[in-house]
Amino acid sequence: MIQQYPSALLENAVNEFAKLPGIGRKTALRLVLYILRQDPSFAENLGEAIIQLRKEVKYCSVCHNISDAETCSLCSDPSRDASTVCVVENVREVMAVENTRQFRGMYHVLGGIISPMDGIGPSDLQIESLIQRVASGQIKEIILALSATMEGDTTNAYIFRHLAPYNIKISVIARGVSIGDELEYADEITLGRSIINRTLYNES
Amino acid sequence: MIQQYPSALLENAVNEFAKLPGIGRKTALRLVLYILRQDPSFAENLGEAIIQLRKEVKYCSVCHNISDAETCSLCSDPSRDASTVCVVENVREVMAVENTRQFRGMYHVLGGIISPMDGIGPSDLQIESLIQRVASGQIKEIILALSATMEGDTTNAYIFRHLAPYNIKISVIARGVSIGDELEYADEITLGRSIINRTLYNES
Asked: Nearest CA of chain B to the CA of A164: how many Å?
């Protein structure tokens, strides 16, 4: 389809928006026209927020989570249990685990998972720094909380192999039938796992 | 749901993105994290494109389309027929009509349609300037190309009433069964209209 934009400024803004994942040219144009209908401060605030974030973003020197300071608010919170570290892929999973209010330990953000298909190997992730954290001696348990996918399993196995020499507990989050799910719709592998890893009724 | 962002900069960027139509907080976070993974120039380009567009956008003094100059490229094109003006809602419809390559006249961009529900009345739109364009005498035909909705019909009627005193042709784009559509699925009103406004077979 031919698309003749009546203005180079408009075309440029549409092009930049359309580079974002899940945003096609039609959506980009709709967003840009929406911005044009708003107060000038709207565009100013959005544009500045994007530029400032990318320019001033920091990553916590301990857990590598996105942070405003040298050490993030979680790592510098003395009420949290520094002996238990939950290993996650990204900041989104930190927020997801925090929202459960079931975990009071620390985190370690890998920044991704091992995915040969996408060219992401162990050296692209914060695995070496995790090993160093464990080697420093304070950690008693590592909880691996990665996606239940092949990439997640590969990353779990890699981390497990490299942490095996250290005398710590390494656990993986439970996999089973989701709460609220009807059993007949659960896939065989999940259902099989949930039978093998069954828990005592009075403990659940 | 509680959502504790680990960084105020991150939260601010997510908030600004989530103000855009059709973008919720989860999508906003996904977009922001995508931007963080890109080269710093990516955020710089996107942010600047948004700010610059809003700051420097111009509207054509003749047709009110978005433009880089005082007069847009369509209005200043001497090869186009200035005696026929196609009235559209927005820049998107200008682009849509241009893409058909079936029209070589000029445009008039209303900037919306009359919609009492949204508090948009005739005075919020470029209708007065359309009447002035017609009054200046050069225009022979006005083609109303608005949406086939109640708001579009109301706007058509309003414009028709105000242009009636001038001795010009006023037409509305054809409404009928879309090309490629199966007749049994066409709605009754569209099908009824398409029978009333039938065209001679050798003219179609």
From this structure: 31
CB A6 within 8 A of CB B93: no
How many of the other CB atoms lie within 10 Å of CB of B73? 16
Return the residue of B nearest to A100 by Cα: B2
Domains of chain B, by residue range, sit at: 8-56, 79-173, 176-204
CATH 1.10.8.420 for the B8-56 domain, yes or no: yes
Taking CB atoms and an 8 Å limit, are B99 and A65 in contact across chains?
no
B chain contacts of residue A16, beta-carbon cutoff 8 Å? 45-46, 49-50
Among B15, B36, B90, beta carbon nearest to A33 = B90
Look up the pTM and report it: 0.79
Q: What is the pLDDT of residues B56-111, one digit of tens each?
A: 999 999 999 999 889 999 999 999 999 999 999 999 899 988 888 889 999 999 99
**ipTM rounded to 2 decimals:** 0.81
**What distance in Å separates the CA atoms of residue B123 and residue A105, rounded to the nearest whole number?**
60
